[in-house]
Each structure stands twice: as structure tokens, then as C-alpha cells.
Specification:
48% of the residues lie in helices and 15% in strands. By secondary structure, it is of the alpha+beta class. Strands 1, 4, 5, 6, 7 and 8 form a six-stranded mixed sheet that branches.
């Protein structure tokens, strides 16, 4: 029986690298996209000392990372291997093989520049009308840090370790103090060694405790200092970063991201402000889940003129009879008083009181009535022996307005999860990027996450836009387009370019 035969390995053959990569291969799009980006304007270091071995051009290293992330490769050592064995990477890198340290250092040293490359993908998406700019959804997701739970400490955990060590030290000291004849010199030396070892551990934990006291932080992570232990789901915790993202509803394309080590409660205002800057207008609606429901954030969004729809959380504590919860009390804004279900008025003395909520101080007014003590519904209404007591936040008008909006736009709010969870699902489940590759600081983590979101946007654009059309744009118009968007606000630059494209091109042709 005959079989298909391979070529002789010792046969000399002519080989053209360009012919090995098809015309429709996406690696050519990566090459075009990076070549048309003005990397010096984005903040990449372009000037290097002439002495010694020449440096690699930032565009080559950026191409390598974009290719790697698009193909689920983030390790610098793995990327170095791909430069030697992957024909697509050989074509993209023109045969260059950077050392893994060079590759790794490029990523961690350029977090701000990588963020600007991400904004270039947002601008590119807008040019092809892939971003509507009318409905946005925001949310956060936890990405595990390069720091184990074992190497994360809070005050209680440190105290437990110190207490355990103290018990052991007392136990060993008691053994040495007793005049046990069976205790050989060798055994005594072994116990003394253990005492020294435990004392070293105790000194280390006491240094951690001192650091907590001096810095005012609540946690210490030894491998990745900026990471924090957070609740990932239900009661499961991980040492992680919280990545906040704002996603446009038209094609589920993220227009913004930020890596934080805090929870969601204080993130909405900044997300809205950045979205306003990126879009260049306030004519959009932003929707968030109940984790973002905070009075100060509503106030911040209102000052920026942005309409937000935020799910309201469950009531923290109910009245003995839930029909007497505060939501069933009628508030009269003109008279600044509440009417309870029994028809009695709860009034205020008009004074504002400061109420601490974590590190935030909120102003509240108090409302009460003397009628509670003689009311027949007292036991259904409150457990407070002095009567019903209501606190009204200074932001309550904005909270009530949001509640009305979500009741009137429930169908719109139901789209939130489908919009904002789409990128997270692809990134964490399909690409398996559920952890941060870098460590040592939040800036390094931002570079890693920036490359993830850059590649996600490029993948969406490649899937939604005809490849030939995208190639034509990158070859002919992208140089002017990306120059403008590097100087203007990302989407304002697009509008300027699209409205004046013929004028700009004619002037350039005349100048030539």
C-alpha cells in the first residue's frame, strides 16, 4: 500500500517567509495596526543610549504581545519560544527573538502607553460605527493576583500567629527549665533551635503589625503588595484585583477600564466621569448593579449631568411588620416631614448630623414623633422603646429619583448583564485569563489588563468588520486618523476627522 511521502529533510529548498503567511491572516492586521500607531505620542520610550547593544523597537514588542494575548499566550518565556518556532510570529517579528526579560520588562514598564493603545482600539471601533455611545453598562470583576492567601495578612490573622508562637515558646521554655534527666544535650540544642526559629517568625509578624498601624491599611500582601483579599462570590475569597469596566451596548465593546484593589461601592462616579470624557458628551445612560448604590456616587454623576440607573439593594433591616418599612412612609419635600402608615407626622429639627460610613462621612437628618408612645401599632412599627426613628441622607432625593428610573426602565436595566458580562465571559472563560500575570504593583497589573482589553477590542473589530475593508482603512486613512486621536479626546478626534476627512486629505495631497 502506498503512502504520502514527506520531503527529504536534507534537501536544500528556497523558502520565502512572506509566502508562508496567507493574505487574510490576522497577523497582517496586527502588523498594520501597530505600524500606524504613533507610539512616541502614546508614551513608549523611543530614545535609547547609543552605547552597547541596540534596543528592540517598541512596535516589535507590542506586536508580539498583541499576537500572544490574541492567542492566549501571556508568559514572556512562552512568547520567546514562539519567536523561534511559530512561522506567524517569525513573520511578524521579522526573525527577531527578544529575551524573555526584555519582553517582560516592556510590559511592566509601559502601563500608561498600553492604555493609550487600548484607547486607539476604542477610536477604531467608533470609526466603523461599532460604538453607539447611548447606553453603557458598568461592572467589576475579580482577577486573582500573584499572591497566595497564605501570604496575605490582616490584624486578626497576625495576632493568631503571634498567639500560637507565644504558646510554643512557653512550652519549649518550660521543657528547658525543668530538670529532666532524660533531656540530653542534643535534645536541648534542638529545642533552642526551634525557639530561635519561632522568635524569628514572631519578629516578622510583629513587623507586619507595626506596618499596619503606621500605614493605616487593613491588609498586607507580601508577594504583590497592592493586591487585597476580596470576596469573589458568595463567601469565597481570593487575593485579587478588582477590574472596573464600562462597556458600550451596541456591540459589547469596552470603552474604559481601571484596575483597583477596592470594592465597587465608590467606583461609579469615576467611571461615569471617564465615560463622559471618552465619549465627549453626556447624552448616554449608564446602568450598574446594586453594588454601586451609594449616595455620594449619585451626587457625583448628577453633577456631571449623566443619567444613571442603579439597582437598589435589599433593605438592611426591616420593621417587625414589613408593611411599616420606611419605604411605606410618605415624604413631603416642601414641608420636610414624613407621614407614617398610621397617619402621624414625623418631623425634624432641621439639623444635619454627620454619620460615618467606612471612611466616608455622610450628612443625615433625623425624623421622629412623640405619637409613637401611644400608638396602637407601635409593636408592628418598631423595636425602639422611644419610638420610630428615621434617618434621611442628604442624597435621598437622588436615590429616590434613581428608584423611579429603574421602575420605569426595568426592561432596559435587564440588558445590563448581557452587555457588561460579555467581555468578562470571553476573557475569563474562553481565554482563561482569570488571573493577573504580573506582580509587585497595581501599575504592572494595569499593563497586563490593558493588553487583555486591547486584544479583546481588536478581536471584536476583526470579527465585525470585513478584513479587506479594515486593511484598506489601516493602510490609507489610519495614519491621519490615529495622529488626530492621539492629540484629541479619543472620540472627539474621530468626529473631527470624519467631518473633515475630505478637506484634510485634499490639503495633504496638495502639500505633497
Amino acid at each position: 500500500m502506498k503512502f504520502i511521502q514527506g520531503n527529504d529533510r536534507n534537501q536544500i529548498a528556497f523558502f520565502c517567509l512572506d509566502q508562508a503567511v496567507s493574505d487574510d491572516n490576522e497577523v497582517r492586521l496586527i502588523d498594520l495596526f501597530v505600524d500606524e500607531c504613533r507610539l512616541s505620542d502614546y508614551g513608549f520610550k523611543m530614545e535609547f543610549i547609543e552605547n552597547g547593544r541596540p534596543a528592540y523597537h517598541p512596535s516589535d514588542l507590542l506586536k508580539l504581545f498583541i499576537y500572544g494575548y490574541l492567542n492566549r499566550i501571556r508568559s514572556s518565556r512562552q512568547l520567546e519560544k514562539e519567536c523561534k518556532r511559530n512561522i506567524e510570529v517569525m513573520w511578524l517579528m521579522k526573525g527577531l527573538v527578544p529575551d524573555h526579560n526584555t519582553i517582560s520588562n516592556f510590559r511592566k514598564d509601559n502601563p500608561k502607553a498600553i492604555r493609550r493603545v487600548f484607547h486607539a482600539t476604542v477610536s477604531l471601533g467608533k470609526n466603523f460605527d461599532l460604538i453607539g455611545g447611548k447606553l453603557l453598562a458598568g461592572d467589576g470583576t475579580k482577577l486573582r493576583a500573584q499572591n497566595s492567601k497564605k501570604n496575605n495578612f490582616n490584624e486578626k490573622k497576625i495576632e493568631r500567629h503571634i498567639a500560637y508562637i507565644d504558646d510554643k515558646l512557653n512550652e519549649y521554655s518550660t521543657i528547658l527549665a525543668s530538670e529532666d534527666k532524660d533531656l540530653t544535650e542534643e535534645k536541648k540544642q534542638e529545642i533552642k533551635h526551634k525557639i530561635d526559629k519561632h522568635q524569628q517568625h514572631k519578629d516578622k509578624y510583629e513587623a507586619y503589625k507595626k506596618q499596619l498601624d503606621e500605614t493605616g491599611t487593613v491588609q498586607i500582601s507580601t508577594s504583590d503588595p497592592d493586591s487585597r483579599q476580596m470576596i469573589v462570590r458568595n463567601n469565597i475569597t481570593e487575593v485579587a484585583y478588582n477590574v472596573q469596566s464600562t462597556v458600550d451596548a451596541k456591540h459589547n465593546i469596552p470603552i474604559d477600564f481601571k484596575v483597583t484593589n477596592k470594592n465597587d461601592s465608590k467606583a461609579m462616579g469615576a467611571m461615569v466621569r471617564r465615560a463622559k470624557t471618552i465619549l465627549g458628551h453626556t447624552e448616554f445612560t449608564a446602568i450598574f448593579d446594586k453594588g454601586y448604590h451609594t449616595g455620594t456616587e449619585f451626587d457625583y454623576a448628577n453633577k456631571h449631568g449623566v443619567e444613571v440607573i442603579v439597582a437598589f439593594p435589599d433593605v438592611a433591616s426591616h420593621a417587625p411588620d414589613i408593611s411599616f418599612d420606611v419605604e411605606h412612609f410618605d415624604y413631603n419635600k416642601e414641608r420636610d416631614e414624613y407621614t407614617c402608615p398610621a397617619g402621624e407626622l414625623l418631623t425634624t429639627n432641621g439639623r444635619w448630623y454627620n454619620k460615618a460610613s467606612g471612611k466616608t462621612i455622610n450628612r443625615v437628618k433625623h425624623y421622629k414623633t412623640k405619637a409613637c408612645l401611644t400608638c396602637r401599632l407601635f409593636e408592628k412599627c418598631t423595636r425602639n422603646k422611644t419610638g420610630r426613628f428615621i434617618e434621611r441622607s442628604e442624597h435621598m432625593d437622588l436615590i429616590d429619583a434613581n428608584k423611579k428610573r429603574i421602575q420605569q426602565n426595568m426592561e432596559l436595566y435587564r440588558k445590563r448583564q448581557a452587555i457588561v458580562e460579555h467581555p468578562f465571559g470571553v476573557i475569563k472563560r474562553q481565554w482563561d485569563f482569570y488571573y493577573v500575570m504580573t506582580k509587585k504593583s497595581i501599575k504592572h497589573a494595569s499593563a497586563d489588563v490593558g493588553l487583555i482589553f486591547t486584544c479583546y477590542n481588536l478581536r471584536r473589530i476583526m470579527n465585525l468588520v470585513n478584513k479587506n475593508q479594515l486593511k484598506k482603512f489601516l493602510r490609507e486613512l489610519a495614519p491621519i486618523f490615529l495622529i488626530l486621536t492621539s492629540y484629541f479626546k479619543p472620540l472627539r478626534g474621530i468626529l473631527f476627522f470624519r467631518n473633515n476627512a475630505h478637506f484634510i486629505l485634499n490639503n495633504l495631497l496638495q502639500a505633497a
